[in-house]
Amino acid sequence: MSTSILKPCFGILGIALLMISCETENFINEDEIDNTEEPEVSELYFPPSNSDEWETVSPATLEWNLAQETDLKSFLEESNTEGFIILKDGKLAVEWYFGDFTQDSNHTWNSAAKTLTAMTVGIAQQEGYLNLNESSSKYLGNGWSSMTVAQENAIRIKHHLSMTTGLDYDVEDTFCTDADCLFYKNQPNDEWYYHNAPYTLLDQVVSEAVEMEFKSYFNSKIRDNIGMQGQWVKFGFNNLYISNTRSMARFGLLCLNKGNWGFVNVLSDKTFFEEMTNTSQELNPSYGYLWWLNGKSSYKIPGSTAQNNGPLIPNAPTDLVAGLGANDQKLYVVPSQNLVVVRVGEDSGESLLGPSGYDDELWQKLNTFFNN
């Protein structure tokens, strides 16, 4: 089995991974929402939740550029890819594995799993357990940080989702969720910074709100409903989700259909789904609720406060939304083309904590493959 499943989240190297078998209101910039029309193609196909059956469609039938298939495959292999899937209308158009990695091999999602947490929070709100506008202190309790009670109370759940809590990120360990690692820097929603500790605290928020362990709630509401396998595993301060490649594709298909798995409403709150997959604040237009967004006027990346002009992934469709993790774990959802693309594997050599130059290189190859 590939050693890549031993690679922990966010690029932290050298930890042996357990082997498994499995403050403004929400801001949506209307000028930057991609108004691409919904595709008029066939209805989406959903594989059974209780079997490995999955209908396929050939690239030849789709009239993709077969002359470029070898080039794409070589690019993926040379960039340390281990599992790669393309879904078209929900059907498997491409499913490739490299080296010793197989359909049954498991891999860490790294920060691409933030998208799982975002939807779990949305379901908890949908079921009346919490509200995004509530202070997270309601569930974390007083003293969850080294801030004053007033400073803690000012941070709402939605600030954890949008990376705008105002917690100090100039600390030794930005993953640390202990109170003595969490300090005040500025008011919530004054600055966007990719700070992992406030994200990780959402697990505790959900657990306290629903009175059930976060991973059990996630399993019952999302994983088991759509036939995913895998599980959350705690490493240091980080909660990693580990699964096979098809499970990531299943979740992408769920999101392509806006929270519905066929006729099963996993997330029926359409307002939350739109907020989750559109600009969540003015500070980084390319970030929703733990989802990365393409086609916006500017973006910020993890580890930096700099604002970069232009879209996040110039070669990708403007309506693409993505879960992006360290070492180039990729979950792309493209509503205008009824596409889900998944890449798991080792670091391509360009990896950051989420977005990297690899995104644009890969989409350049994909565009050539899709266009005959």
Structural description of this entry:
β4 and β5 form a beta hairpin. This protein has a six-stranded antiparallel sheet with strand order 2-1-13-12-11-8, sandwiched between helices. The chain has a three-stranded antiparallel sheet with strand order 3-5-4. It has a single domain (3-370), classed as DD-peptidase/beta-lactamase superfamily (Beta-lactamase). The protein has helices spanning 69-78, 114-126, 137-140, 149-153, 157-162, 196-210, 214-226, 245-256, 270-276, 357-370; strands at 81-88, 91-97, 107-108, 231-235, 238-243, 260-261, 264-265, 292-293, 298-299, 308-309, 321-325, 329-334, 339-345. The two termini are 36 Å apart. With 372 residues, it is an alpha+beta fold. The model is unreliable at 1-42 (pLDDT under 50). The protein contains ten helices and 13 strands. The longest helix is centred in the middle third of the chain and has 15 residues, at 196-210. It is globular.
